[in-house]
Amino acid sequence: MAETPLAGRTVLVVEDEILVALDIADTLTAAGARVCGPCVSLKQALDAAGSAAMDCAVLDIDLGGQEVFPAARVLQTRGIPFVFYTGQPEREALRDEFAGVAVCVKPLRPERLVDALAALDAPKPLQRSSSSR
Which residues contact 77 (CB under 8 A, 6 or more apart)? Predict the structure, then answer.
């Protein structure tokens, strides 16, 4: 019997449409993940990004008219990998600041989202160095 692709991982779900968020949570749970959230607002996302224990995250970009990018920056600082899950993949920040982050475009087959999360590396805390390099 094959192991579930997200077994043992905790995944933060940030999605403002509650039915979509619950569907994502069900998909991730079926893939073996523990789900943190869902967070439906930028404030909830920032709180969770800054303090919740997680291995990775899935972030909707537009949260009730506010962009999720501040929470994404917190996750980057903590060394927690994430994917964006959006219907609006043309955002400038995705090409510039977050060019290396996977973007899953809605609508998406659930197993593709699971595959994108399973492909992420484990969290890596940022190394502080005294050099400016």
Answer: 126
Q: Which residues contact 117 (CB under 8 A, 6 or more apart)?
A: 5, 6, 9, 11, 28, 33, 56, 58, 83
Q: Output the CA–CA distances (angstroms, integers) from residue 92 to 26, 84, 89, 95, 100, in the order listed.
A: 31, 13, 9, 5, 13
Q: How many domains does the chain have?
A: 1
Domain boundaries, position 61: 10-118
Contact assessment for residue 6 and residue 114, using Cβ atoms and an 8 Å cutoff:
yes
- β pairing state of 10-14 and 34-39: parallel
57, part of any domain: yes
**pTM recorded for the entire structure:** 0.87
Strand 56-59 relative to strand 34-39, pairing: unpaired
Examine residue 3 and state whether it is found in any structural domain, yes or no: no
Residue-wise pLDDT for 7-64, tens only, equals: 999 999 999 999 999 999 999 999 999 999 999 999 999 999 999 999 999 999 999 9
CATH number at residue 104: 3.40.50.2300
